[in-house]
Amino acid sequence: MSISIRIVALLTLLLASLSSYAQDKSYQYQLDGVYPANLPGLSSPQRIKFTLQWNEKDQFIKGVYSDSFFTTSSPVTGTTGVLGRVFSIRLPRILQNVSQLSLTSANGTVMVFMKDVTEMTVDQANIQANVVTKIDYVPEPESTCEDCGLYMGTISEVGDSKNQCNLPEYGFAMEITKDDRAKFYFYYSESTLGVPDHDLGSFPFAPKQHCGMLVGTSFPPDGCQTLSVKGTFAGSGKEKSFRGKYTITDEKDQENCVYDLVLERKQI
Q1: 21, 73 Cβ separation under 8 angstroms
Q2: Nearest to 70 by CA among 106, 104, 103
Q3: Are 56 and 28 a contacting pair, CB within 8 Å?
Q4: Listing from the earlier edge strand, what are the strands of the sheet with 181-185?
């Protein structure tokens, strides 16, 4: 079997796995619609059909988004409040200069913002679409996570091969959520809302690709980096700690930054 055929087969398997995950997981809410996209480089506007499925807890949104143009399956985060819902979708690749989507939904009106790597709006659309509550929704049992919680402490630079990193040390925190996600926060103070962060992806830690601007670094905004965390947990309860290293590697020239992490759990 040729290399190209093997690559196609692996990509097909990956997409099938993502699609299966989206179908197997039970979501409480769904939003379907079609929005126009007049993007640079296209000979004519696209009519993009999309499906958004999600769950809500403590005003936070977690779900999955798919459409007929940008992505077959991408994770969704967001918030809900008295003024409606706000959704954020990071796309798996840059397409027609669009790297992320932002949707707002309120009273049957949906605003779609197509943004580039600098979060500037490339195009936007206003459509009518209603949120549907799914009657077949089955809540997932509460999961237990021994390492979950918010950890605070120090992040210290030990290597920067091209002087491209200057991560803020003030208010540094690491969060591991019960839905197996991990993030680093900078300038944390009592709340993670609106705080600059590095999204580390799934937990347990695995190398995560990030494309676009990265807080505290000067890597080109049109490039991608690999974010890697390695370390060990010790203790239990409020005495839980983490010691490890955080490495940011630019995928184009393989230049990297390395940081030591010394963290203590503050809440479970």
Answers
A1: yes
A2: 103
A3: yes
A4: 197-202, 181-185, 173-176, 149-160, 256-267, 241-250, 224-234, 208-211
Q: How far apart are CA 104 and CA 95, in angstroms?
A: 21
CA angle 111, 116, 122 (to 5 degrees): 50
Write the pLDDT tens digit of every residue in 65-123: 999 999 999 999 888 888 899 999 989 889 999 999 999 999 999 999 999 988 899 99
Q: Which pLDDT belongs to residue 41?
A: 84
Task: Identify the DSSP state of 134.
Answer: -
Q: Which of 174, 103, 170, 179 is nearest to 141 (CA)?
A: 179
Rounded to 5 degrees, φ, ψ at 17 are -65, -45
Angstrom CA distances, 42 to 38, 45, 50, 118, stand at 7, 7, 19, 21
Question: In sequence order, what are the beta bridge partners of 183?
Answer: 175, 199
Residue of 125, 120, 5 lying closest to 67 (CA atoms): 125
Residue 12 has pLDDT above 70, yes or no: no
Label residue 11 by pLDDT band (50, 70, 90).
very low
Q: Which residues pair with 226 in a beta bridge?
A: 209, 249
Half-sphere exposure of 153 (CA within 13 A, CB side): 19
pLDDT at 139 over 80: no
The yes-or-no verdict on residue 26 having pLDDT over 90 is no
pLDDT score at 141: 63
Structure tokens at 16: 């099938």
CA 53 – CA 239 distance, rounded (Å):
37
Total Cβ atoms within 10 A of residue 66: 18
